[in-house]
Write a structure and sequence with these properties.
The structure holds 2 protein chains of 2 kinds. Chain A is mainly alpha-helical. Chain A contains 17 helices and 4 strands. Chain A has 2 domains: about 230 residues, no CATH class; about 60 residues, Alpha-Beta Plaits. In chain A, strands 1-4 form a two-stranded antiparallel ribbon. A two-stranded antiparallel ribbon of chain A has the order 2-3. The longest helix of chain B is centred in the first third of the chain and has 31 residues. The radius of gyration of chain B is 21 Å and the shape is extended. The chains are: A mainly alpha, B alpha+beta.
């Protein structure tokens, strides 16, 4: 009973944070975008004023991975001026840097696209498929990241292949969905086929119809892949925060494996059976910490 | 040993599959983009502009639901040393095409008058999203051939003139074509 209450409180907290993340980052009215715009205008009105007054930054600009990749290849001066000079375009790098020390907390707690996880909870189980314990998402995820960077290569310059990334953006779609909720269907007019495929993958197939609802995040989100890569590298340093399992407490009951929305937990048979954490996909949602009947999973330093 | 090679095979297949998704989707996107929508970048003032060429009827799966709309987002940068207040015009628009105008990440866009109510300083950016609704494309190979004009609201000077063509690929004798860069 006590465990159930803890679990429910945890779920309410997570939905609350994801809604907060939506208010902070979605569209041009996100609190972070608006706040940072005003801050920049106040601090460096002369330098940024004319740019920011008219141009409305949105989540997919602030967190677009692709524009910085393009800048590095084609316009290095833009990379310097926009990523270092204007934090509105550098948010993604700040999040990756944070992930190195504390893990991808943004993905688990604030990313607006992650609300699909909780919509998925509302779907009846018989309509959903589960990949728990069956698939390791890491190879596909990093393969996708490599492909995502590859299509920016100079040999594709001038071809529409490289423009796929705008169509292929769940953050853009999150904005469109929220605009539609408030009566503005403009984002759905003249959508592209690639965009439609993204929507189907993100929201439906790998979203609400997949148990856990985080299929897009763990297979196809390049930003998430970079944050997890940073988490994986950072976990080796002693003062970084990470998710850990206390093997002596773990009874291998498998609840966490079944419920993990990112397929990050597995029971592996080596010399003896052990619970393993895949830091390449774990988004630190802490569902496992709150579900574990023996408190064997912990998030902490060291 | 067998377990290790199986794990290595799964790893390689996973990476290749993941790699194939953005590349494959990019190839598909490049095949159908002319029949769906563009996002193009231009600077003004400029004497020359790459034409935008749509291929009506050549869209992908999205056009099953929405066959008669085409969209273009035009992002503009003021490369002049002085500020401009700008307005927009679509010239030679036939009556069978309705256009919905909206600002793209731009404050102060007036959807009715097709202008930006704020001054665009040097290096400033603005964006316009045009959605073309085509009624009765008919049999003509060229549905629309005109210009998207950016002009200075104070002086009336033309700052940029982008040729736009909508070709009907289903009609006999339609020209082949593509758009500008993203």
């Amino acid at each position: 009973m006590k465990r159930k209450i803890i679990w429910r409180k945890h779920l309410v907290k997570r939905v609350g944070f994801l809604l907060l993340g939506t208010a902070m980052f979605t569209g041009s009215y996100g609190l972070v975008m608006t706040g940072m715009t005003h801050l920049l205008l106040a601090v460096e009105a002369k330098r940024f004023g004319s740019v920011l007054v008219n141009s409305v930054p949105t989540i997919h600009r602030a967190m677009c991975l692709r524009m910085p990749i393009d800048w590095v290849i084609y316009r290095p001066e833009f990379f310097i001026s926009r990523t270092f000079g204007n934090p509105l375009y550098a948010l993604i790098f700040i999040l990756i840097a944070i992930s190195f020390f504390v893990g991808p907390l943004f993905c688990g707690w604030l990313c607006p696209a992650g609300l699909t996880e909780h919509l998925s909870r509302l779907m009846p189980s018989r309509l959903k498929f589960s990949l728990a314990g069956k698939v390791d998402p890491a190879p596909l995820r990093y393969g996708f990241l490599i492909g995502y960077i590859f299509v920016a290569a100079p040999m594709f310059r001038g071809t529409p292949i490289r423009s796929i990334c705008c169509s292929y953006c769940n953050w853009t779609w999150t904005e469109h969905v929220w605009e539609a909720v408030f009566g503005d269907f403009h984002g759905f007019i003249a959508w592209t086929s690639a965009g439609l495929i993204t929507f189907l993958l993100w929201f439906l197939i790998l979203g609400i119809f997949m148990k856990g609802g985080r299929g897009f995040c763990i297979f196809l989100c390049p930003a998430g892949a970079l944050m997890n890569l940073a988490y994986f590298l950072g976990k080796h340093i002693p003062f970084a925060w990470k998710l850990k399992v206390e093997k002596e407490k773990c009874t291998l009951c498998g609840i966490c494996v079944r419920e993990c929305p990112t397929l990050a937990l597995n029971i592996v048979a080596k010399s003896e059976k052990t619970l393993t954490i895949n830091h390449h996909v774990c988004n630190l949602c802490m569902d496992c910490v709150n579900l574990c009947p023996t408190n064997a999973l912990k998030y902490g330093k060291g | 040993m067998a377990v290790k090679s199986r794990a290595a095979a799964i790893l390689i297949i996973g990476v290749l599959l993941g790699f194939a998704i953005p590349v494959g989707l990019g190839v598909y996107h490049s095949m159908v983009r002319g029949g769906e929508s563009y996002h193009l970048f231009y600077s003004f003032p400029s004497e020359k502009a790459r034409p935008i060429i749509f291929r009506y009827g050549a869209g992908g799966i999205a056009k099953i639901l929405d066959p008669n709309t085409l969209g273009v987002t035009i992002s503009l940068t003021n490369v002049d040393k002085k500020p401009h207040m700008i307005g927009f015009k679509l010239e030679k628009l036939p009556p069978n095409i309705h256009v919905h105008w909206s600002g793209f990440h731009t404050k102060g866009f007036n959807e009715e008058k097709h202008l930006i109510e704020r001054v665009l300083g040097p290096r400033s950016r603005a964006g316009v999203h045009l959605t073309f609704f085509i009624e009765q494309a008919g049999d003509k190979p060229v549905i629309y051939s005109g210009y998207f004009k950016v002009y200075d609201l104070k002086t009336g000077d033309t700052l940029l003139k982008i040729p736009i063509k909508i070709l009907n690929v289903k009609a006999a004798g339609a020209e082949a074509g593509g758009g500008g860069r993203r």
